[in-house]
Design brief:
The protein is mainly β and 327 residues long. The chain has 2 helices and 23 strands. The strands form 5 sheets. Strands 1, 2, 3, 21, 22 and 23 form a 6-stranded antiparallel beta sheet that branches. The radius of gyration is 18 Å and the shape is globular. Helix content is 5%, strand content 45%.
Amino acid sequence: MRRILIVLSLAILLLPAPNRSKPDAVRPGILLVQARPLPLNSDMPGQHRLGRLDYLGGWELRSDNPGFGGISALLVDGPGQILALSDAGILMGFHVGTGTAIRRPFIAPLPVRPQERERPWWSWDSESLTHDPATDRYWVGFELLQRICRYSPGFARVEACRTWPEIEAWPQTGSIESLARLPDGRFLAIGEMGMTADGHHDTLLFADDPAELDTPDPVHLHYVAPQGYRPTDAVALDSRHVLVLNRRLTLQELFTATIAIIELPEHVTPGAELKAQTLARLAPPLLADNFEGLAVSHEDGQTILWVASDDNHEFFQRTLLLKFRLD
């Protein structure tokens, strides 16, 4: 019965309605985060191999700041320098693991345009985040608002926003969970519950900046997710290969996740299928929760994956951060 009640509670949190457990108002300031190390498998503490991944470490993150948590998107710069974005439009910067922090830990709301300062706090349903290291600009995908915004370096201001009818056609809280910028300047957005006629996930490939008015209409592709799973984040490895984080909620296992890879065709045609190849699966007794954030970094020539969970600001969930090395 307890398991059924938890699943029902989680299902309600994922319905298309404001999540009143989100923090009301967050002031910019220093963020103090406690990171408790965790084994990948509590039944086998020595396990480090998971599919195509090597487990390098994991942490349960906690903070006394009420704005901390709800992580829906993730970027990592350098060894353990984390930039997380919550589904309430809150940025969180902190450091985990070994190495030296390259900036002070902080928490701050996303900047907003003057005409939107009175918008209710719960409407900033920011679910996806990507970055161009060459210009240091950022893009955020918003579900309830059904739009993509670009931010100047350091998130100093909003530079541009655009609402696409292709995204507005997706369910409001099952839309732009995944937004990835490819190294060649294209952008890929995957609809979490925006489905195609053949039952796959509608995917938009933009030839250029999706926040600009002169960017041409995107090409529709079909993301074929692992069976029973829905995409919650994506990050590009290169101009052809994209990693996708996928989530599932069942009575038997509660939250589970898969990390998959897709390959874009060399010559893109509308309706092309992007079939997920699973690299690893996170399910009990392994660390498992509501994983929504995926990021890639590089250390000593190796590709490092980071996975973060959204605790929905609920007492029965955790904010987990996992670190893997990709073969």
